[in-house]
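tmp note - BRAMP protein
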Amino acid sequence: MQPLKALFLNCSLKKSDETSNTEGFMNDVQFHFNKLGVESEIIRLADFNIALGMAEDMGNGDEWPSILEKVKASDILIIGTPIWLGEKSSLATQAIERLYASSSTTNEKGQAIFYNKVGGTVVTGNEDGAKHSAASILYSLSHIGFVIPPNVDAYWVGEAGPGPSYLDSGRENEFTNAAIKRLAYNTFHLAGMLKNEPIPAEGNTLG
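out:
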Protein backbone atom coordinates (compact mmCIF):
# COMPACT_ATOMS: atom_id res chain seq x y z
CA MET A 1 0.00 0.00 0.00
CA GLN A 2 1.22 3.50 -0.82
CA PRO A 3 2.02 5.70 2.18
CA LEU A 4 -0.94 7.63 3.50
CA LYS A 5 -0.99 11.35 2.71
CA ALA A 6 -2.14 14.02 5.14
CA LEU A 7 -2.87 17.63 4.26
CA PHE A 8 -3.05 20.40 6.84
CA LEU A 9 -4.93 23.59 6.00
CA ASN A 10 -3.59 26.28 8.32
CA CYS A 11 -6.37 28.86 8.60
CA SER A 12 -4.32 31.37 10.57
CA LEU A 13 -4.82 34.96 9.44
CA LYS A 14 -1.02 35.34 9.38
CA LYS A 15 1.05 34.85 6.25
CA SER A 16 4.19 32.70 6.26
CA ASP A 17 6.48 35.58 7.20
CA GLU A 18 4.82 35.60 10.64
CA THR A 19 4.97 32.96 13.37
CA SER A 20 1.77 30.90 13.58
CA ASN A 21 0.86 29.07 16.78
CA THR A 22 -1.59 27.01 14.75
CA GLU A 23 1.27 25.86 12.50
CA GLY A 24 3.41 25.06 15.54
CA PHE A 25 0.57 22.84 16.75
CA MET A 26 0.41 21.18 13.33
CA ASN A 27 4.15 20.53 13.47
CA ASP A 28 3.57 18.58 16.69
CA VAL A 29 0.97 16.42 14.92
CA GLN A 30 3.43 15.94 12.05
CA PHE A 31 5.94 14.52 14.55
CA HIS A 32 3.65 11.54 15.06
CA PHE A 33 2.75 11.26 11.38
CA ASN A 34 6.46 11.09 10.54
CA LYS A 35 6.86 8.21 12.99
CA LEU A 36 3.90 6.46 11.35
CA GLY A 37 5.23 6.94 7.81
CA VAL A 38 2.47 9.37 6.81
CA GLU A 39 3.48 11.94 4.20
CA SER A 40 2.19 15.36 5.21
CA GLU A 41 2.12 18.94 3.97
CA ILE A 42 0.99 22.20 5.56
CA ILE A 43 -0.64 24.88 3.42
CA ARG A 44 -0.91 28.38 4.91
CA LEU A 45 -4.14 29.63 3.33
CA ALA A 46 -3.30 33.29 4.02
CA ASP A 47 -0.52 32.98 1.43
CA PHE A 48 -3.03 32.33 -1.36
CA ASN A 49 -5.60 34.34 -3.27
CA ILE A 50 -8.73 32.38 -2.38
CA ALA A 51 -11.85 33.90 -3.87
CA LEU A 52 -15.18 34.08 -2.11
CA GLY A 53 -17.86 31.95 -3.69
CA MET A 54 -19.42 28.52 -4.03
CA ALA A 55 -17.71 27.04 -7.08
CA GLU A 56 -14.63 24.85 -7.49
CA ASP A 57 -12.97 27.60 -9.53
CA MET A 58 -14.11 31.19 -9.25
CA GLY A 59 -11.72 32.37 -11.99
CA ASN A 60 -9.91 35.71 -12.03
CA GLY A 61 -6.79 34.40 -10.35
CA ASP A 62 -8.54 32.18 -7.80
CA GLU A 63 -5.87 29.88 -6.32
CA TRP A 64 -8.25 27.50 -4.55
CA PRO A 65 -8.30 24.90 -7.38
CA SER A 66 -4.65 23.97 -6.77
CA ILE A 67 -5.41 23.50 -3.06
CA LEU A 68 -8.47 21.42 -3.87
CA GLU A 69 -6.34 19.07 -5.98
CA LYS A 70 -4.13 18.46 -2.93
CA VAL A 71 -7.24 17.73 -0.85
CA LYS A 72 -8.38 15.22 -3.47
CA ALA A 73 -4.97 13.53 -3.39
CA SER A 74 -4.90 13.25 0.40
CA ASP A 75 -6.21 10.52 2.69
CA ILE A 76 -6.35 12.74 5.78
CA LEU A 77 -7.39 16.38 6.01
CA ILE A 78 -6.67 18.40 9.15
CA ILE A 79 -8.13 21.90 9.36
CA GLY A 80 -6.34 24.11 11.86
CA THR A 81 -7.64 27.41 13.17
CA PRO A 82 -6.97 30.05 15.78
CA ILE A 83 -9.87 31.29 17.88
CA TRP A 84 -11.20 34.81 17.37
CA LEU A 85 -14.16 35.99 19.47
CA GLY A 86 -14.85 32.39 20.43
CA GLU A 87 -15.11 31.26 16.79
CA LYS A 88 -12.96 29.60 14.15
CA SER A 89 -11.21 32.04 11.83
CA SER A 90 -12.80 33.57 8.75
CA LEU A 91 -10.33 31.60 6.61
CA ALA A 92 -11.51 28.35 8.20
CA THR A 93 -15.08 29.26 7.28
CA GLN A 94 -14.00 30.13 3.75
CA ALA A 95 -12.09 26.85 3.35
CA ILE A 96 -15.15 24.88 4.44
CA GLU A 97 -17.36 26.86 2.06
CA ARG A 98 -15.03 26.10 -0.85
CA LEU A 99 -14.91 22.41 0.11
CA TYR A 100 -18.70 22.40 0.30
CA ALA A 101 -18.82 23.75 -3.25
CA SER A 102 -17.36 20.39 -4.37
CA SER A 103 -19.68 18.23 -2.29
CA SER A 104 -21.89 17.35 -5.26
CA THR A 105 -18.91 16.14 -7.32
CA THR A 106 -18.76 12.35 -7.33
CA ASN A 107 -16.17 9.62 -7.59
CA GLU A 108 -16.37 6.68 -9.97
CA LYS A 109 -18.84 4.96 -7.61
CA GLY A 110 -21.22 7.91 -7.49
CA GLN A 111 -20.22 8.90 -3.97
CA ALA A 112 -19.08 12.36 -2.90
CA ILE A 113 -15.41 12.85 -3.73
CA PHE A 114 -14.57 13.22 -0.04
CA TYR A 115 -15.79 9.71 0.79
CA ASN A 116 -13.10 7.46 2.30
CA LYS A 117 -11.09 10.47 3.45
CA VAL A 118 -10.59 11.12 7.15
CA GLY A 119 -10.97 14.52 8.80
CA GLY A 120 -9.69 16.14 11.97
CA THR A 121 -9.01 19.56 13.46
CA VAL A 122 -6.57 21.46 15.64
CA VAL A 123 -7.50 24.68 17.44
CA THR A 124 -5.38 27.21 19.33
CA GLY A 125 -6.27 30.37 21.20
CA ASN A 126 -6.09 32.47 24.35
CA GLU A 127 -9.78 32.30 25.15
CA ASP A 128 -12.73 29.92 25.18
CA GLY A 129 -14.18 28.52 21.98
CA ALA A 130 -12.04 25.47 21.18
CA LYS A 131 -14.81 22.88 21.45
CA HIS A 132 -17.30 25.11 19.64
CA SER A 133 -14.85 25.68 16.78
CA ALA A 134 -13.93 22.00 16.59
CA ALA A 135 -17.58 20.92 16.58
CA SER A 136 -18.35 23.26 13.71
CA ILE A 137 -15.40 22.06 11.63
CA LEU A 138 -15.91 18.35 12.28
CA TYR A 139 -19.64 18.49 11.56
CA SER A 140 -18.98 20.33 8.30
CA LEU A 141 -16.40 17.76 7.19
CA SER A 142 -18.71 14.88 8.07
CA HIS A 143 -21.61 16.50 6.22
CA ILE A 144 -19.68 16.64 2.94
CA GLY A 145 -18.40 13.07 3.12
CA PHE A 146 -15.33 12.90 5.35
CA VAL A 147 -15.18 10.20 8.02
CA ILE A 148 -14.49 11.51 11.52
CA PRO A 149 -12.69 9.15 13.92
CA PRO A 150 -13.02 9.50 17.70
CA ASN A 151 -10.93 12.10 19.53
CA VAL A 152 -9.64 14.11 16.57
CA ASP A 153 -10.23 17.57 18.02
CA ALA A 154 -6.87 18.49 19.54
CA TYR A 155 -6.71 21.97 21.03
CA TRP A 156 -4.94 24.32 23.41
CA VAL A 157 -6.34 27.45 25.02
CA GLY A 158 -4.60 29.74 27.46
CA GLU A 159 -6.10 32.00 30.05
CA ALA A 160 -8.76 34.48 28.95
CA GLY A 161 -7.42 37.72 27.56
CA PRO A 162 -3.88 38.56 26.45
CA GLY A 163 -1.22 36.10 27.51
CA PRO A 164 1.18 33.37 26.38
CA SER A 165 0.24 31.50 23.21
CA TYR A 166 0.71 27.83 22.33
CA LEU A 167 4.33 28.14 21.25
CA ASP A 168 5.13 30.03 24.46
CA SER A 169 3.69 27.58 26.98
CA GLY A 170 1.15 25.20 25.45
CA ARG A 171 3.60 22.52 24.39
CA GLU A 172 4.04 21.50 28.02
CA ASN A 173 0.34 20.73 28.49
CA GLU A 174 -0.13 16.99 29.09
CA PHE A 175 -3.79 16.98 28.06
CA THR A 176 -3.00 18.67 24.75
CA ASN A 177 -0.03 16.41 24.07
CA ALA A 178 -2.21 13.33 24.61
CA ALA A 179 -4.88 14.80 22.32
CA ILE A 180 -2.29 15.45 19.60
CA LYS A 181 -1.16 11.82 19.74
CA ARG A 182 -4.75 10.50 19.60
CA LEU A 183 -5.50 12.77 16.64
CA ALA A 184 -2.50 11.49 14.70
CA TYR A 185 -2.98 7.81 15.48
CA ASN A 186 -6.76 7.71 15.07
CA THR A 187 -6.70 9.49 11.72
CA PHE A 188 -3.85 7.20 10.62
CA HIS A 189 -5.61 3.99 11.67
CA LEU A 190 -8.98 4.85 10.14
CA ALA A 191 -7.47 6.18 6.91
CA GLY A 192 -5.57 2.93 6.54
CA MET A 193 -8.72 0.89 7.12
CA LEU A 194 -10.63 2.89 4.50
CA LYS A 195 -7.75 2.58 2.05
CA ASN A 196 -7.97 -1.20 2.32
CA GLU A 197 -11.76 -1.43 2.62
CA PRO A 198 -13.56 1.62 1.16
CA ILE A 199 -17.13 2.47 2.12
CA PRO A 200 -19.43 0.51 -0.24
CA ALA A 201 -21.46 2.54 -2.71
CA GLU A 202 -24.65 0.61 -1.98
CA GLY A 203 -27.19 2.87 -0.35
CA ASN A 204 -25.13 6.05 -0.21
CA THR A 205 -24.51 7.45 -3.66
CA LEU A 206 -25.51 11.00 -4.53
CA GLY A 207 -27.55 9.95 -7.51
